[in-house]
């Protein structure tokens, strides 16, 4: 069939754009926002060993290099930067602009909000899509994944605090509620954790997929920022003992099998 010159020009521009546009291969996701490279990682907790932690510097700080893609607006950048900077006031974690470090976070607007768990080596994506992910709590949530943490509802002691309502979960999403041998680090289950999903996550019918026990009226999954337990776990994992209370410092020392921090 025949097309006019204007239409042909438009189609040509579109095809050229498609050829030049980045072709991102999105990773497989589990639990909604955790990127994995293989099925074997679905139920794994990579941070059970020190290999997944970002290294500690001689000055006692943990520097995590990052780059941010240039497709965010100034307001979006402010929210992302606020999330990055929030860690420095409550832990020894310091997110810093990458210079030439091999391992770093690449913060980009891809398909949704997601991150790998722990340090992976080389560039690793933290996706903060411009549509739906640019919130302080979401930035902190994904950064905690990148630092080595999983979701609260997958904790090894989950069944003592949350009853999973399996019949309300989308069938092919049930794996998202598998428990993991998590590093709870002496902290209690925390309904207020920024890592706790909301009551109807992955629901197929709008009904709850999680019910708190023994009191099913307890509010959860409503955090707007990291809880004190989130902060304590972070500081324990990274031996930021000076940021912990005296009791937590003792646990920090015991957990890391050292006498001094």
TrEMBL record:
Transmembrane residue ranges: none
Q: Does the keyword Metal-binding apply?
A: yes
Q: How is the cofactor bound?
A: Binds 1 zinc ion per subunit.
| Native source organism of the sequence | Pygocentrus nattereri
- Name used for this protein in its record: Metalloendopeptidase
PROSITE patterns in the record, alphabetically?
ASTACIN
Which N-terminal stretch is annotated as signal sequence? 1-25
UniProt key word Hydrolase: yes
Q: Which cofactor does it need?
A: Zn(2+)
**EC number(s) stated in the UniProt entry for this protein:** 3.4.24.-
What are this entry's molecular-function GO terms? Answer: metalloendopeptidase activity; zinc ion binding
All copies of the Peptidase M12A domain together span: 43-242
**What InterPro entries does this protein map onto?**
MetalloPept_cat_dom_sf, Peptidase_M12A, Peptidase_Metallo
Q: Which residues are the active-site ones?
A: 142
> Pfam families from the entry?
Astacin (PF01400)
Q: Which GO terms describe its biological process?
A: proteolysis
Quick one: which residues bind Zn(2+)? 141, 145, 151
Keywords (alphabetical) are: Hydrolase, Metal-binding, Metalloprotease, Protease, Signal, Zinc
Gene3D superfamilies the UniProt entry points to: Collagenase (Catalytic Domain)
């Amino acid at each position: 069939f025949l097309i006019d010159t204007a239409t042909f020009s438009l189609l040509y521009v579109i095809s050229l754009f498609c050829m030049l546009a980045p072709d991102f291969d999105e990773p497989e996701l589990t639990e909604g926002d955790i990127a994995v490279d293989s099925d074997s990682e679905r139920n794994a907790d990579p941070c059970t060993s020190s290999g997944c932690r970002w290294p500690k510097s001689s000055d006692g700080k943990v520097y995590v290099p990052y780059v941010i893609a240039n497709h965010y607006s100034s307001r979006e950048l402010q929210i992302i930067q606020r999330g990055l900077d929030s860690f420095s006031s409550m832990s020894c974690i310091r997110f810093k602009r990458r210079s030439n470090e091999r391992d770093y976070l690449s913060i980009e607007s891809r398909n949704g909000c997601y991150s790998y768990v722990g340090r992976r080596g080389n560039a690793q994506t933290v996706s903060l899509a411009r549509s739906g992910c640019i919130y302080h709590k979401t930035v902190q949530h994904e950064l905690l994944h990148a630092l080595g943490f999983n979701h609260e509802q997958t904790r090894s002691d989950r069944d003592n605090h949350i009853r999973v309502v399996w019949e309300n979960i989308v069938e092919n999403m049930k794996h998202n509620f598998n428990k993991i041998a998590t590093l709870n680090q002496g902290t209690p289950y925390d309904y207020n954790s920024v890592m706790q999903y909301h009551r109807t996550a992955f629901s197929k019918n709008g009904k709850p997929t999680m019910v708190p026990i023994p009191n099913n009226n307890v509010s959860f999954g409503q955090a707007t920022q990291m809880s004190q337990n989130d902060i304590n776990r972070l500081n324990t994992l990274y031996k930021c003992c000076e940021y912990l209370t005296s009791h937590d410092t003792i646990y920090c020392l015991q957990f890391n099998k050292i006498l001094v921090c």
